[in-house]
Amino acid sequence: MTRASHSNTSTGWREWVGLPDLGIEWLKAKIDTGARTSSLHAFDVTEFERDGEEWVRFAVHPWQDSTADAVVHETRVHDRRAVRSSSGHTEHRIVVTMRVRLVGREVDAEVTLTNRDEMGFRMLIGREALRQGFLVDPARSFLGGRAPREMRNRNRGR
User: Fold this and answer.
1) What Gene Ontology molecular function terms does this protein carry (predicted)?
2) CA angle, residues 17, 14, 149, in degrees to nearest 5
3) DSSP for 64-131, written as a single string
4) What phi-psi label fits residue 23: left (phi over 0), alpha (psi between -120 and 50 degrees) or beta?
5) What is the DSSP letter of 30?
6) Which of 58, 65, 100, 119 could form a disulfide with 42 if both were Cys (CB 3.0 to 4.6 A apart)?
7) Exposure of 133 by Cβ count < 10 A (0-12 exposed, 13-18 middle, 19+ buried)?
8) Taking the mean position of all CA atoms in its chain, how far away is CA 139?
């Protein structure tokens, strides 16, 4: 993981982020200083071996409340962790690494894969990613801009 060597970048409590490794330009995320590791909504998670290493294939629905534009991605498994939710429930999750574009900056992040269908955001950005030079302003939102309206609205109800 790389660390920022420049001044801090302000972020709001929620932001539109990009996941360049997955080809996802816009995904709404909650900035969560209470979470250590970032978390991504993933489904159809399948583990497999490639060249003697553990890999995982998973799919992502980038739009909340929509199954449109699903993206399938394969990557090496970075780690496995027991993660305790805010409700106290512990879940064993696969951890992968990926680039995250937040407020115009790209950082490397450890991201756990889990089902977030019942959650308000497809992704949480946790402290480990935020330590790379971000300050959170809990009174602000979308400091990095918003997905274009046609992108936000075109998939509603599908």
Assistant:
1) peptidase activity
2) 65
3) TT--TT-EEEEEE--EEEEEE-TTS-EEEEEEEEEEEEETTEEEEEEEEEE--TTSS-SEEE-HHHHT
4) left
5) E
6) 58
7) middle
8) 21
* Polymer length of the chain: 158
Place of tokens 């409340």: 65
Question: 């991504």: which residue's tokens?
Answer: 40
Task: Locate 19 and state its tokens.
Answer: 């996941």
